[in-house]
Amino acid sequence: MPSEIRRIFDPHIHMTSRTTDDYAAMYDVGVRALVEPSFWLGQPRTSPASFYDYFDALLGWEPFRAAQYGIAHHCTLALNPKEANDPRCVPVLEELPRYLLKDGVVAVGEIGYDAMTPAEDSALAAQLELALAHGLPALVHTPHRDKAAGLARTLDVLRESKLPPERVVLDHLNETTVGPAADSGCWLGFSIYPDTKMDPDRMVRILRVHGTERVLVNSAADWGRSDPLKTAHVGEAMLAAGFDEDAVDQVLWRNPVAFYGQSGRLRLEAAPPAEQLYQGNSVLRGGE
Ligand SMILES: [Zn+2]
């Protein structure tokens, strides 16, 4: 029997911005679980209340939608780095603790730096403290511009926090940042995009050098050009490059389960068989 991808856990994908066709296609390639981090929706928010409706959707509506397609949905909640600079948004930090108590929340995130401002410094430090206080891991993204300096400053703030490195994933890494990130003891996150950042073959080369321990691979698919099947493409590229099925399963399933499992809140009960999935949609269709 040829080697194949057994199951996929996408540890970072913004399903709010994706279609039901995406859910169906993800199920078909093996995606059975995912984590949706709260993020910047593109349109600036004008009040903290706008976050609360979004958080409620990540805890209620989106898991319901995912379940119709046989996929277990979890989320991470936070004030995102970009909106940490907007005084209209910062008060969300006062309400965040009561959301972090909810069952579907498996980490604080995504947090980190965007433009590396003092406002981002304080939002990052405050939210690392919240993660520690709630016994949750943290999803820390590294900035898209000026990556090396952004990572160095992120690692400084992490060292000042009491959150242990094994409870932190540093995301959007690439060849220039993977070395120092690996030395920090944090988990290593890689976002695979169609035409920027990492692609599947570059990812395979990194796995050859750094191994498969503590590595998370995600599609980070959102409202921009992105592809929710990139996790599967990495699995295929790994198999083509000679990694065995077990190594693929470690990267695409067991690693994200181990990282987010630190929350004690993963819900990975068996998905219903595919034949049953596309029928219970009357509630969703009613919303059209
Ligand atoms: Zn993201």
Itemize the secondary structure elements and their pairings.
Layout: E1 8-10, H1 20-29, E2 31-37, H2 48-59, H3 61-67, E3 72-77, H4 92-100, E4 105-112, H5 118-133, E5 138-141, H6 147-160, E6 168-171, H7 178-183, E7 187-191, H8 200-210, E8 215-218, H9 230-240, H10 245-260, H11 282-286
Parallel strand pairs: 1-2, 2-3, 3-4, 4-5, 5-6, 6-7, 7-8
The site of zinc ion (ZN) has 7 residues, from loops.
Number of strands: 8
The CATH topology is TIM Barrel
Q: Per CATH, which architecture?
A: Alpha-Beta Barrel
Assign the structural class, choosing from mainly alpha, mainly beta, alpha/beta, alpha+beta, or little secondary structure: alpha/beta
**CATH superfamily assignment?**
Metal-dependent hydrolases
Overall radius of gyration:
18 Å
Beta-sheet strand percentage? 5-15%
Largest sheet features: 8 strands, parallel
Read across the widest sheet, the strand sequence of neighbours is 1-2-3-4-5-6-7-8
**Low-confidence blocks of residues:** 273-288
Mean pLDDT: 93
**Cα shape:** globular
From N to C, what is the helix and strand string? EHEHHEHEHEHEHEHEHHH
Overall tally of structural domains: 1
